[in-house]
Amino acid sequence: MPATARSLGTTTGQLRRMSNVEQLDWVRRYLAPYRGKMGNWLDVYCAVFWPAAIGKPDDYVITSDKVARQNPALDINKDLDIHKWEIREALQRSIPRQYKHLFE
Q1: Structural domains in the chain (count)
Q2: Which of 71, 85, 100, 104 supports an S-S bond with 58, CB 3.0-4.6 Å?
Q3: Is 71 helix (H, G, I), strand (E, B) or coil?
Q4: Residue 25: which domain range?
Q5: Per-residue pLDDT reduced to its tens digit, 32-76
Q6: Could you tell me if 66 and 41 are in contact, meaning their C-beta atoms sit under 8 angstroms apart?
Q7: Angstrom distance (rounded) from CA 13 to CA 1
């Protein structure tokens, strides 16, 4: 997001021109405020997708029709609310079988 990039002292254009390895420094800067708050892989995902969900239980709800419509794969039950358990389930479905044990 342009505003997020600006808050980190860069631009989306600059980030786009960087290699994935060069971008890691910016990822670290972005995640720094959440250090110590992320207890598992799902919290790391939420730090990027919806930071208010970090540390919340699986029944935490993102009640935003707009967010649900923009992310239909995460709204598993199609009620236009995204529960944290839905994010977990949707992501686990996309993990190759040989790596699933890392995300349980």
Answers
A1: 2
A2: 85
A3: coil
A4: 1-35
A5: 999 999 999 999 999 999 999 999 999 999 988 899 999 999 999
A6: no
A7: 11
